[in-house]
């Protein structure tokens, strides 16, 4: 977990020993469910790194189907400014709705198209860190700045050709290649796609 939680700072007194908890998928940012925790449930959640909720008893929250071991992993816990409610960012192993839906609100828990860029960036970051054999991304990192930059240039040219020919399918396909290789180059140089977004936001202001 990224944040350490001081349980003694949590105000359990306003709701008969419980605090409301919003559980959110840390990656997609979808709200998975809302529940309650008492001191015991929060203590277990912190100690075990799994989401525990309070009901008639304190229990680990499992994915739909209650398969053994399918516990939601805790990524982070945030306390609101009044110290009487929590935001738990978690990694769900599967659907969490009782009906089998992805969330308790019957929403599909998936990346929006733009959010997928952050996922792709994280994936490429992992490739740079682990450098697995047989990975195309690994081979690019091994070739260095000049070769990666050359690929970005090649894909830019292919994108332009697709646009000029009026071949929309090819234009979108090559644009995907261009964006992927640009993210690889950014990662190689120690940056992320979010740094480019930040620059664009500055210009927009």
Query: Residue share in helices?
Result: 40-55%
CATH T-level fold name of the largest domain:
Helix Hairpins
Q: Radius of gyration over alpha carbons?
A: 22 Å
What's the shape? elongated
Major beta-sheet overview: 4 strands, mixed
> How many strand elements?
6
Order of helices and strands: EEHEEEEHHHHH
Q: CATH homologous superfamily of the largest domain? A: MazG-like
What's the number of structural domains? 2
**Annotated CATH architecture of the largest domain:** Orthogonal Bundle
Strand content: 15-25%
Count of runs of 4 or more consecutive helical residues = 6
CATH C-level of the largest domain: Mainly Alpha
Strand order of the largest sheet: 2-1-6-5
Low-confidence stretches: none
Distance between the termini: 34 Å
Structural class: alpha+beta
Helix and strand arrangement:
Layout (H helix, E strand, L loop, with lengths): L18 E7 L5 E7 L1 H10 L3 E3 L3 E3 L12 E7 L6 E6 L23 H16 L5 H8 L1 H21 L2 H21 L4 H12 L1
Parallel strand pairs: 1-6
Antiparallel strand pairs: 1-2, 3-4, 5-6
């Amino acid at each position: 977990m990224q944040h350490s939680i001081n349980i003694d700072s949590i105000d359990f007194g306003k709701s008969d020993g419980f605090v409301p908890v919003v559980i959110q998928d840390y990656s997609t940012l979808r709200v998975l469910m809302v529940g309650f925790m008492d001191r015991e449930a929060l203590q277990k959640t912190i100690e075990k790194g799994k989401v525990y909720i309070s009901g008639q008893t304190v229990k680990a929250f499992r994915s739909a189907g209650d398969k053994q071991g399918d516990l939601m992993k805790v990524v982070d816990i945030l306390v609101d400014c009044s110290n009487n409610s929590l935001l738990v960012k978690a990694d769900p192993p599967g659907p969490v709705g009782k009906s089998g839906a992805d969330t308790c609100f019957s929403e599909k828990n998936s990346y929006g198209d733009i959010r997928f860029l952050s996922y792709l960036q994280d994936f490429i970051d992992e490739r740079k860190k682990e450098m697995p054999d047989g990975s195309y991304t690994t081979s690019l990192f091994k070739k260095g700045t000049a070769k990666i930059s050359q690929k970005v240039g090649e894909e830019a040219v292919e994108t332009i050709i697709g646009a000029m020919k009026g071949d929309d399918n090819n234009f979108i396909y090559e644009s995907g290649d261009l964006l992927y290789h640009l993210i690889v180059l950014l990662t190689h140089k120690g940056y992320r796609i979010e740094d480019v977004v930040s620059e664009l936001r500055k210009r927009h202001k």
